[in-house]
């Protein structure tokens, strides 16, 4: 029987109180304190349907400092470039970034996400970005789940950063700042959004958090600058002024030289963030095109060195280190003209909205839930056999599937015609105590 994991308030609080140790005086996080790294490839973090309708397993590669004894480490999740039609988690630039920061004591994960621009137009581009965002969110949730279960990767979930190169940077920016369904409905209708799986998607590890600490934007862009709002998380950006693929300022993203969709580039994002007080160190490559750090030429190697140093400064500042900056942000080029933008406020209900992670509370009502997962029925045993209990079952969308009141010592949840999958069991007693936990029917 597979072990059941109870998600308790105590566990969540413990994770919330953990903070990455930042022994900057020893050089960790700020310098290469490790000589060797360990790479674990093709770890499955989820699955979802591709643009072509087939099912794709989603995998990531993890880079860790070899011999590390730290048990609470900051994480960087990287997404590769390739205009959402190509690229891989093993692309040279994301591998180099992962290796560089693993040597400094970070854990890095390079992810694969679903590719495909169908149709090859602005609507297809929006759908491609949303698929990539759903997959990145699933990878973030994968590490929250790990922290609350096996803790195999020793991640400090208070210090998860996301970033990427080109399309990967676009993915990271939208993961962080596209947080209302009304924003994306400017591009596609609600029916299409729902068909894609909504804002969160169903790529894996549902109902865990996808909260991150900051964003690393390398030659990326956002659909609208106004999606960055006061109080949002910080980001850093690096971008070339003559980038012909993802524009430095505002302009059309042009994969394969084809003008596809109008985006706000890094220069526009800086302007907005400066106005509203969101931290956003920015480095401009004057007179440079797209991703000048990619490749093996002497120039590319030099640009990668600058890139690593600049990102390092951003990361250690957000970890609380006080080491001197290695690359000082330079003055941005061009004028960013912020057009009129009205923030929308509406949002559709997302998966787990009715039974949220915050409700996965300490189990003071139940003594056992078995078998879980189950092919058939599941039995729950109450701690207080002399009390009345309300037993409710929700599916992953938050829909109430069943509700009952019992005064028995045990209660059987009948599978009946329920579809296989994840459900949430919520139990309350007359004293107002509640507990919520995950159950699975095979």
Strand content: 25-35%
End-to-end Cα distance? 13 Å
Which regions are unreliable across 5 or more consecutive residues at pLDDT < 50? 1-22, 353-363
* CATH homologous superfamily title of the largest domain: Alpha/Beta hydrolase fold, catalytic domain
The outline comes out as globular
Instruction: Output the CATH topology of the largest domain.
Output: Rossmann fold
Q: Which class of the largest domain in CATH terms?
A: Alpha Beta
Largest sheet data: 8 strands, mixed
Describe it.
β3, α2 and β4 (107-111) form a beta-alpha-beta unit. The protein folds into two domains: 18-319, Rossmann fold, CATH 3.40.50.1820; 357-441, Immunoglobulin-like, CATH 2.60.40.1220. It contains eight helices and 18 strands. The strands form four sheets. An eight-stranded mixed sheet has the order 1-2-4-3-5-6-8-11, with helices on both faces. A four-stranded antiparallel sheet has the order 15-14-17-18, with no helix packed on it. A three-stranded antiparallel sheet has the order 7-10-9. The protein is globular and about 75 Å long. With 442 residues, it is of the alpha/beta class.
């Amino acid at each position: 029987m597979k072990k059941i994991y109870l998600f308790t308030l105590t566990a969540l609080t413990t994770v919330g109180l953990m903070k990455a140790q930042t022994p900057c005086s020893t050089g960790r996080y700020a310098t290469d304190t490790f000589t060797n790294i360990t790479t674990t490839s093709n770890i499955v973090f989820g699955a979802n349907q591709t643009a072509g309708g087939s099912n794709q397993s989603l995998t990531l590669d993890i880079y860790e400092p070899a011999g590390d004894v730290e048990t609470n480490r900051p994480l960087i999740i990287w997404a590769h470039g390739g205009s959402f039609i190509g690229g891989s988690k093993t692309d040279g630039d994301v591998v180099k970034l992962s290796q560089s920061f693993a040597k400094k004591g970070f854990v890095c994960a390079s992810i694969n996400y679903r590719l495909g621009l169908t149709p090859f137009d602005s609507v297809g581009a929006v759908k491609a970005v949303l698929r990539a965002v759903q997959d990145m969110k699933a990878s973030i949730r994968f590490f929250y789940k790990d922290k609350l279960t096996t803790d195999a990767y020793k991640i400090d979930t208070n210090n998860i950063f996301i970033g990427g190169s080109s399309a990967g940077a676009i993915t990271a920016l939208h993961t962080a700042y596209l947080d209302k369904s009304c924003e994306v409905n400017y591009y596609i209708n609600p029916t299409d959004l729902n068909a894609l799986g909504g804002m969160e998607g169903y790529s894996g590890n549902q109902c865990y958090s996808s909260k991150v600490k900051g964003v690393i934007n390398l030659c990326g862009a956002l659909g609208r600058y106004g999606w960055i709002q006061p109080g949002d998380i910080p980001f850093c950006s690096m971008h070339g002024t003559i980038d012909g693929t993802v524009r430095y300022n505002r302009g059309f993203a042009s994969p394969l030289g084809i003008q596809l969709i109008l985006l706000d580039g890094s220069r526009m994002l800086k302007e907005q963030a400066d106005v509203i007080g969101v931290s956003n160190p920015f480095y401009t490559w004057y007179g440079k095109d797209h991703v000048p750090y990619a490749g093996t030429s002497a120039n590319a190697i030099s640009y990668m060195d600058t890139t690593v140093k600049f990102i390092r400064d951003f990361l250690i500042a957000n970890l609380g280190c006080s080491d001197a900056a290695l690359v000082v942000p330079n003055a941005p080029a061009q004028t960013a003209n912020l057009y009129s933008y009205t923030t929308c406020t509406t949002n559709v209900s997302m998966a787990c909205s009715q039974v949220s992670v915050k409700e996965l509370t300490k189990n003071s009502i139940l003594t056992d839930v078995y078998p879980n997962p189950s092919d058939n029925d599941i039995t729950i045993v109450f701690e207080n056999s002399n009390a009345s209990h309300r037993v409710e079952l929700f599916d992953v969308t938050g829909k109430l599937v069943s509700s009952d009141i019992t005064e028995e010592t045990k209660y059987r949840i009948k599978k009946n015609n329920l579809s296989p999958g994840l459900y949430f069991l919520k139990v309350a007693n007359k004293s107002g105590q509640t507990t919520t936990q995950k159950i699975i029917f095979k």
